[in-house]
Amino acid sequence: MYTPGHFKIEDLGTLHAFMQRHSFATLVTHDGNLPHATHLPFLLNPTQKSHGTLISHMARANPQWSHFTKSEVLVIFTGPHAYISPAWYATEPNVPTWNYTAVHAYGIPRIITQHDRFAQMLHDLVEFYESGRPNRWNGELPPEFRDGLMKGIVGIEIEITRLEGKFKLSQNRPQDAPGVISMLQNSTDQTDRDTAKMMQETL
Hints:
Layout: E1 8-9, H1 12-21, E2 24-30, E3 35-41, E4 43-45, E5 53-59, E6 73-84, E7 97-112, H2 115-130, H3 143-150, E8 153-168, H4 177-185, H5 190-202
Antiparallel strand pairs: 1-8, 2-3, 2-6, 4-5, 5-8, 6-7, 7-8
């Protein structure tokens, strides 16, 4: 990912927190001829291995998992983003741009075939997404029903080998950033307001 120095995020804790906060991500692979992408929920274990590990699952009917080799795959996590008008800047002349946040996680994927471990992975995913919800689902299913569903999906674990973080949030425009934040905060669009919050946290 092209990342000028102003926008580069290298702190592992910041990268992990972003991945956990924006955990519905895009898995990108290549079968030797064509790229493939699947949108999946991921659960990060930040303490496993040097950069952490990711777990998820996909439909067995999805051919992407059969392309896994010992080569790296890419998981793209994206967060708040917004169009930025030059009318919001204190300086001129300027042109429009886009503020956005992203983390790219590269890693080696492998299929989890051991039944009990696969079942635990699915339980952990449910716990992560159900945690803190009112009237939450406890994840309990009849074993026969659960095992039947498991036959239709593939468990994936990715050992992260490297991470790239880019928060393009007007760090290179200290004079203009306050005006941008103000305009985004007053937007009717929730994503704009989320971008303003990320700008405040980052700047």
